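Researcher: Go.
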Amino acid sequence: MFKLVFTALIATLLFLGLATSYAENSDLFNEDGYRSTQYRSPTPTFSNYAKTIEPSELLALQKKDPQLLLVDVYRNPWLRGQFTLQEQHSNLPKSLWLANCGDGSLSEEWMAYCQQNLEQATAANKAYPIVFYCRSDCWLGWNAAKRAHALGYNNLYWLRDGIDGWMQADLPLEPAQPVAF
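Model: Structure:
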């Protein structure tokens, strides 16, 4: 029995070490470990900084804690002082759309936008439950959860399949506008 448990522990530690070293050594990640290119590509099944959840788990969380903060981090290009996304974007009901907060590298201004809006939405409560999401096969939600953890938030969730998973579960979406920059 001990041998089996010990072998499983070693295998898990090796896997986690390989996953971490992959992020550290890959050109897809910046020096801080954020995915910084090819955001729309397969994502890991877990995050070290947030609990990975499915739409059914999110529904249960919302029943348990109606104050749960939903944060959509879908990108929206910023040009000449305005967001320029051409298509209509929808997100999960009652979400806060913090556009671009899942980007791998943020300027000081964008970092301030993300940090200030999280502080305002959570009343600066670092234990406030927050769910980050984007689309399926999108690293932006993963990055945003990692960034929130770096800011000291500790009750974090990642809706890995994001808006696409929500739609596949036949759950409603609503038209969205990003929080002003």
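Model: The two ends are 57 Å apart (CA to CA).
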